[in-house]
Amino acid sequence: MEGYLAAKTQLTGPNLPKSSDFQAQEPMTTLQPRPNSPLFALYSAFGFLNSCYDTEMADSVWVSSSLQAVAAETVPPRHTALVRITHWLTVLAFLALLITGVEILISHPRFYWGEAGNVNMPPLFKIPIPASRSTVPTGYGYVLPDQNGWSRYLHFQAAWLAVLTGLLYASYGFLSGHFRRNLLPPAAGLSWRSLSAVIAGHLRFKRLSDAEAASYNVLQRLTYLAVIFVLFPLVIWTGLAMSPAIASVFPGLVSVLGGQQSARTIHFFVSLLLFLFLLVHVMMISLAGFTNRMRAMLTGRINSNKEPHS
């Protein structure tokens, strides 16, 4: 009881801090307790506890950051450096081929089948656009500017860049096991049930989970294999077959296609398929998370946090 009364006296009696216990500190305008006042001990104890709390928080933040850094270093890259380099070189070459190819097409938007083809022959089909040459009948009363010279030169340079990049990528893919590990579909995934489920998910624009996005599904693997081993070699083959120099040295490369004009027609349709693949590829990247997929192809790593749904 006496202890209770003593405590009550300290709280309500003369030991309460008075205004004289505070002193003005210059140049600060706030009041702080005097060193000999009872409030000074409480003030010091609170400051000590606050500094301990801040230290513990700083240690926990440092440990968390360190663990995240170690995890980032141990997680294998989504794409290796060589895959990323050859990917962007191929993008650059393909865009140059696409732009210059359109300019070359405008000079003669008519297609034939066989060895020869000119304006005096009926075309297999024609593109209903104006031409850049007045000698080509198109039905339009005007011609477009002729850009055939520089476009052909840049087209051939970009084609060789695509060929050399493709050879480098193919060599790496076979020697490192990249094709077998990342592109060759498992036997179980080739069943119609698995294929139909994947196709239905794409048609519904279903967003992939982190586990599904970590590797290519069976439809993606088949598409990439078709592009790498069918469409790209075929577009290069038909492009070389249109060259008079290649036709004179390797006539069999041209004759098996049915002639130079046949090679040109096949080249056009294969280019359309590659352009369609490019559009679908960009659309699927946007649906799956454009920022994350671009980061993976630029830095090799993908963010583990899910991107917000668009």
Please characterize this protein's 3D structure.
The chain is mostly helical and 310 residues long. It has 2 domains: 24-74; 79-299, Up-down Bundle (Fumarate Reductase Cytochrome B subunit), CATH 1.20.950. It is 65% helix and 3% strand. It contains 11 helices and 4 strands. The protein has a two-stranded antiparallel sheet. Strands 3-4 form a two-stranded antiparallel sheet. Helix 3 runs antiparallel to helix 11 (260-299). The longest helix has 40 residues, at 260-299. The chain is elongated. 14% of the residues are buried. Residues 3-14, 19-30, 52-64, 69-74 and 306-310 have low confidence and may be disordered.
Chart the SSEs and their pairings:
Blueprint: H1 2-12, E1 22-24, E2 31-33, H2 38-74, H3 81-107, E3 110-111, E4 125-126, H4 148-176, H5 178-183, H6 192-203, H7 210-213, H8 218-241, H9 244-249, H10 251-255, H11 260-299
Antiparallel strand pairs: 1-2, 3-4
Helix pairs in contact: 3-4, 3-11, 8-11
